[in-house]
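Fold this sequence, please.
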Amino acid sequence: MNSPTVLKTLLRPEVRLAQYCTMQVGGPARWFAEPSSEEELSDLVEYARRENIPFRILGKGSNVIFSDAGYNGLVITLIHFEQNRILFDEGAMQVRASAGIYLYRLVLALRDRGFGGAEFLANIPGTLGGALVMNAGFSRFEGQKNEIADIVREVRVMNPDGSRETLVGEALQFSYRRSNLEERIVLEGTLQLWRRPAEEIQQEVRMNFEYRNGKQDLKHPSSGSVFKNPPAPWPSAGRLIEKLGLKGLRVGDAMVSEKHGNYFINAGRASCADMEALLEKVQKAVEAGAGVRLEPEVRFIRSENLLI
């Protein structure tokens, strides 16, 4: 495909995807685009559909690993998408924000207005759109789940055919690290929050960061938690991996963190193949040693995984 002059957004050829993913692994995208508005995004999606070009939507890339061969299509990142659109409804205690807003920035904006309830999102390295698609969550307390599904009021999306709709109530379906938004493009989300003093919000954010810094490996490129936690009565995925002595296990430059069993790190120049092989080794070891097969939370993306 030739870069068309009719598009409002520059199409860049052969862009290395590793630089747009927190694991810093992945080959080139055949084409890459960074829309800043809904009009530009719609233009790109319409063009890809019309030309039958596979495309993939990418947030901050904190939960995906692209193939070493890259992506033979168009990758559209939303990291610059409507970065200033955060709208507050003081009466209803709701906030409506663009899918491209970084979670940390959103929580700080909420803090400054005294909107509490989203503090657990501050230390998740992603965008609001990605958090909604994955039903992102975090808690520093064992057995407690804080998920974005708990505070979502509505989500506006673009469907694969280019139409828009707003999903509310039963139209939104969330489960553990999944949602029914995966085949749609999230444009914005509305969160239902509550009044809380800014000082308390800041303290909660700080305590969450201190916990994360103490427990998780943040010095090396990673995708955060690799596996979903298994259901009770099994302990967390990280504890299972640690109990089996798998911390430090390595395939090439892909390594299970010495600090946290459920973190895989890029210890140098890891490849996607390294990461996949390490994941399989850990899966097999945990299944043999603990009797449960861990389900990946991180997603490996190949050209056949299409959103079109």
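The chain has three domains: 12-77, 86-200, 217-301. The first strand starts at residue 12 and ends at 16.
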